[in-house]
Structure formats: structure tokens, C-alpha cells
Amino acid sequence: MQHSLLPTHDNPLEPDLTTSLKYEGEDDQSFFVSSANSAHLTIPKNRSIPSPFVDQPAHPLTPAFRLLTWAFVGLAPAGLGTLVLAPAAALWALAMILTRPLIRADRIRVFVVWGIAALLLGIAIPVSTLVLAHFHIRGRFP
How confident is the model at residue 7 (pLDDT cuts 50, 70, 90)? Predict the structure, then answer.
């Protein structure tokens, strides 16, 4: 008769107490379990720990594009926000081109910022002039 290393059960409904494990905890390298007979085991995870995501430095023109976004939103209240924020974005882009060595793509972005700022100002100046003229005609401004 051959003896097996694995336990055999005469009654299949009886639980196998010799092979049940209870989870006790874990750390970065291993799991901690205990068996039914109170033997504590450490099982290695055998996996590599991923390196944390390295934050990339912010793009130098990001603030200029944020100012342009707010300048576009500033068109709603009679274009007054745009009259302040569009020139601020253009000046920020000018400061970046004068103070930092920019690659060709960034220099193109500077021209895009200037173009969008000029377009927004071209819209905001007539809108704000019309709103101020409207209030002046109605007698709200001297």
C-alpha cells in the first residue's frame, strides 16, 4: 500500500483542520498566517515594490494658460476681468521668454498666449465700452 503525503478523508464533509490557515496580517515583504495548530508562518510576497510616482516639474507657461482661462471667464461680467487678466497672462509669457531658455515648442506656446490674450482683449474692450456707455446713457455714471 502506498502512503500519500497529502491527507485523505474518509468523510468528505469533515473539514480539513490541518490545511486551514488564518490571516494574521502583512507588511511590505510578507504575509503572516497561523495554522489550526497555532503554528505561525511567514509567507513571502515575492513581488517587487513599485517606485513611487515622481512628480514632474510644472510647465513654465501653466500660470499663463490659467490666467487666460480666467480671462475668458472674465468676459461674462462685461469683460472687466479680461481687461486685467489677459494682459497679466501676456506679461507672464513675456517674463518666461526673457528669463528662461525655452525650447522651440515653448516659444510657440508664448506666441499662442499672446495671440489668445490679444483676441480676448479685442473682444473685452468693445464689450466693456458698450456696457459702460449703456450705464452712462441711463444716468448711472456721471
Answer: low
Are 130 and 100 members of one domain?
Answer: yes
Tell me: do 101 and 128 sit in the same domain: yes
Place of cell 468693445: 126
Res 118: pLDDT = 93
pLDDT, position 12:
55
Q: What angle do CA 113, 115, 119 make, to 5 degrees?
A: 115
Burial level of 15, CB count in 10 A (0-12/13-18/19+)?
exposed
Number of domains in the chain: 2
Euclidean distance between CA atoms 77 and 44, whole angstroms: 63
| Nearest of 84, 110, 85 to residue 97 by alpha carbon | 110
Q: How far is CA 111 from CA 97, 103, 108, in A?
A: 10, 13, 5
Nearest to 90 by CA among 106, 73, 67: 67
